[in-house]
Amino acid sequence: MSQWYENRIDSAINGTNPMVMAELEGGYAVFGDVQFLPGYSVLLPKRNVSSLNDLNINERTCFLRDMSILGDAVLYACKAKRINYDILGNTDGFLHAHVFPRYSTENPQRLKKPVWLYSPDYWTNPKYSYNPQKHDQIRKTITDYLI
What we know:
- It is a single chain.
- The protein is α+β, with helices and mostly antiparallel strands.
- The chain is 32% helix and 17% strand.
- It has helices at 8-13, 57-78, 108-111, 132-146, and strands spanning 20-23, 27-31, 41-45, 82-86, 97-102.
- The chain has a 5-stranded antiparallel β-sheet.
- Strand 1 (20-23) and strand 2 form a beta hairpin.
């Protein structure tokens, strides 16, 4: 039996992805597995496609609008300085939009650069993993904003 994280989109669609916060018109808002920037979230599409260009124009419009609404929710919940959005697809071959809160408490030089320039171990170090005790209040605030 496969694990939910082996196919994040299908598991969101079939209701087995525990990180889903809300189903929106254009996608599924999910809380990030890692939280080195608390509130980090992802928008997954309503169907499993490899890129934004695989969606029809109406699906794209909904997806991009909902990405920005997820950004509004993260900004509200985290009191962040700003939100960074990324749709890359270079590592994972499925469409997903990263929504990163950026904080004035970050090193000013780091704040000027993409999140991807943080050390790669930030993505794998257990101290940055999602922890319900540490992160569920932010997650709940984001979810409440979206529903």
